[in-house]
Write a structure and sequence with these properties.
Blueprint: H1 6-19, E1 27-32, H2 38-46, E2 51-54, E3 56-57, H3 63-73, E4 82-83, H4 92-96, E5 101-107, H5 115-128, E6 129-139, E7 141-142, H6 150-162, E8 169-170, H7 171-180, E9 183-191, E10 195-202
Length: 203
């Protein structure tokens, strides 16, 4: 059954407005933590039809919804979802194929996971991206140790009350791990609702 997340409906257009600056005309894009599958189908509809989109999820219960979105759209360039646990030393897609990706997108993951998972995402991006391929992260971030709004401060407290290993990350820490894995910081663009689009490129 196709499932809908209201926040995905709200943010998919502003995210794509940033994403389109970095998308190539052809190639392969990997989405980490595809959720219900709304974003990847929306992006595929807006972008060049010569791009191939690979959804992925750690939580396989989302596969039914991802496939329902795919089947409704009937886009041949949105592939069936793959299981990807970014905390693993090697991702399952790496074990299946040596293909590299032109881009990776991940929305609202880095703050809703343990820091080790976020580090795994950055390490893996360094491995599976082509040279000059991009990584696009979307979500809230701290700057110089501080949240950028009172609402984000409350959100951060709420996240940590649910799981002490969750929380809004400082962009300096994200940059540090990205740099250690061959990912150069490109831009940090303000987005609606006190979020940011953060872009890195594989060196």
């Amino acid at each position: 059954m196709k499932r809908v997340a209201a926040h995905s409906e709200r943010n998919q257009t502003p995210i794509f407005q940033v994403l389109q600056k970095y998308l190539p005309q052809q190639g392969k894009i990997l989405e980490i933590a595809s959720g219900f599958g709304q974003h990847i189908v929306f992006f595929a509809n807006q972008a060049s039809s010569d791009l191939t989109w690979q959804p992925s999820e750690y939580d396989t219960t989302h596969f039914e919804s991802i496939n329902a979105w795919r089947e409704e759209a009937q886009f041949g360039n949105v592939l069936p979802p793959e299981v990807v646990d970014v905390s693993q030393e090697r991702w399952s897609i790496e074990l299946k194929s040596s293909d590299k990706y032109d881009g990776i997108i991940s929305t609202n993951l880095v703050h809703i996971c343990p820091w080790g998972v976020a580090e795994g995402l950055l390490r893996g991006a360094g491995r599976v991206l082509k040279s000059s391929g991009f990584l696009h992260l979307y979500g809230p971030y701290k700057i110089d140790g501080r949240c950028t709004s009172e609402s984000n401060e409350e959100f951060d407290k709420s996240l940590q009350s649910r799981n002490p290993e969750w929380g809004i990350r400082d962009i300096a820490d994200v940059k540090r791990v990205a740099d250690a894995n061959g990912l150069a910081f490109v831009a940090m663009e303000p987005m609606p609702a006190n979020n940011f689009s953060v872009i890195f490129r594989k060196l």
